[in-house]
Write a structure and sequence with these properties.
487 residues, alpha/beta, Rossmann fold, three-stranded mixed sheet, rod-shaped, SAM-dependent_MTases_sf
């Protein structure tokens, strides 16, 4: 629990510094006045201490009883003799006094109107006889000019508070007024230890260790708080504090306005940052797309170069083929022209008179050559004579064999042993359209010749050879061979 100061001049702070280590201590407050405002005992009461209050003014005595129902309140005055005292009561202040001169001064200087009140008077010895020999940790005397009389009614041997605080100035003044009673405390073996500008503090010699606690005034190291209810000093501090608070409030308002402006700028910057972040993200996306497009373009360019190279190769190949085609066409025209020339020469030869004159000689030579082969010729002539009758029957047989795969397989196995018969039957089947094979390759006898030139890309195919006679075809083949040898 923090220590809150209620006293007028920080008396409670000084006492707490010296006695705060004591649990559930005891005090006597003479001239206690209000239970809270300017109270020296209020802070101790909040920390579990209890004590006795002496207050002759009925208003304050009632307030003390209400605020401290578990404490004793003596509604009397103290003096050097018991009896009745005329008290000048100044309502709602702590200036009530039995000294008429002080009352008149308050009236003239401040306009107060004192009221006379007769109160009983006891001495310190008689009022606290029940507490003789008991521990009293502090005793305060604030009786507005009657301090000397109160101390003269004290038996210092029977009642010995550890610390005593006595108001040492004329009421509401800085003029000192303690010389008449200071000797009483010194003779009672009390050591003066501190003056706070209003009160003098004394420590009993048997508790001299407490004197060091009064070496300096209250400060930040006492770790206390102000209640704001401790009279003029607190009013001054409060006013200063409120002035500073007002200034701080104005500063805070100005700071808030500045903070609002900064927050607005921050929001604008945040919005701008968000926009920039989005723009950056879009730019990064565009950059990635651009990089992807660049890669695609590079790949496309590479493919284009490859296609261009292929195209160049194709163009070169096409040009070569075109040149070859032109050369082949030229050669074809040349061979055709040569063929026509030879054919015309042959026709002229056949139509010439020398050819007709030498015909008997040629027949005689042919007859001479055919005599050794007469049996074969006779056989061939016989075959040609019966062929018209045999051919249809043979073709019918071939057709039936070809319609049956098993018979075809057996027929081929047999015919492979007789190649010449197989060739003749094949020619007949091709000629009759039973086998899908170009007739010209077999019929004209050019099939084997074309195979000779199959590996030669420069050879020339025979155009429209079916339009030529067999003899013309043979001449054309001879021309091709001669041309190849010449090249």
């Amino acid at each position: 629990m923090s220590f809150i100061s209620y006293a007028q001049n920080f008396e409670d702070v000084m006492l707490w510094r010296a006695l705060g280590h004591i649990k559930n201590g005891f005090y006597i407050d003479i001239g206690a006045q209000h239970p809270v405002i300017d109270s020296v005992s209020k802070a101790f009461y909040e920390h579990g201490w209890r004590g006795i209050h002496v207050e002759p003014v009925p208003e304050f005595a009632d307030l003390l009883r209400k605020d401290r129902p578990d404490e004793i309140v003596l509604q009397v005055a103290l003096g050097d003799n018991e009896g009745i005292l005329e008290l000048n009561v100044i309502a709602e202040t702590g200036l009530s006094t039995a000294v008429n001169d002080y009352a008149e001064r308050h009236k003239s200087e401040r306009g107060f109107t004192p009221e006379k009140l007769h109160v009983p008077v006891l001495t310190l010895k008689s009022a606290f006889s029940a507490y003789c020999g008991k521990e009293i940790h502090w005793l305060k005397i604030d009786v507005e000019g009657l301090e000397e009389k109160v101390l003269r009614g004290w038996d210092s041997e029977l009642l010995r508070p550890w610390v005593m605080i006595v108001e040492a100035t004329i009421p509401n003044s800085i003029e000192l007024n303690y010389s008449s009673w200071d000797r009483i405390l010194v003779d009672a073996n009390y050591q003066f230890v501190y003056f706070d500008g209003l009160n003098r503090f004394y420590v009993a010699k048997e508790h001299a260790e407490l004197a060091d606690s009064f070496s300096c005034p209250p400060n930040v190291f006492d770790h206390f708080q102000l209640s704001g209810l401790s009279g003029e000093l607190c009013d001054l501090v409060k006013n200063q504090y409120e002035s500073r608070l007002i200034a701080k409030d104005a500063e805070i308002r100005s700071g808030k306005d500045e903070l609002y402006a900064i927050e607005a700028q921050l929001r604008a910057l945040t919005t701008q940052q968000h926009s920039l972040t989005q723009s950056l993200a879009m730019a990064e996306q565009h950059l990635q797309e651009k990089q992807t497009l660049t890669q695609s373009l590079a790949i496309a360019e590479q493919r284009l170069q490859e296609k261009q190279a292929e195209n160049d190769d194709l163009l070169e190949r096409s040009q070569w083929l075109e040149n070859e085609w032109k050369a082949s066409q030229a050669q074809m025209h040349h061979l055709t022209f040569d063929l026509r020339s030879r054919s015309e020469e042959l026709d002229q030869l056949l139509a010439s008179s020398s050819w007709r004159v030498t015909a008997p000689l040629r027949r005689l030579a042919t007859l001479g050559k055919s005599v050794p082969a007469l049996p074969g010729n006779l056989l061939r002539s016989t075959a040609r004579a019966v062929m018209p009758v045999v051919r249809p029957v043979a073709l019918m047989a071939i057709r039936k064999v070809l319609a049956n795969p098993a018979m075809t397989k057996k027929a081929l196995t047999t015919l492979n042993k007789v190649p010449r018969l197989k060739q003749k039957l094949r020619r007949s089947a091709v000629y009759a359209g039973l086998i899908n094979e170009q007739r010209g390759e077999i019929y004209t006898g050019t099939h084997s010749m074309m195979q000779e030139y199959e590996g030669d890309r420069s050879s020339i195919s025979i155009p429209h050879q079916q339009d030529l006679s067999a003899r013309a075809n043979r001449i054309l083949i001879d021309l091709q061979k001669a041309n190849k040898v010449r090249r």
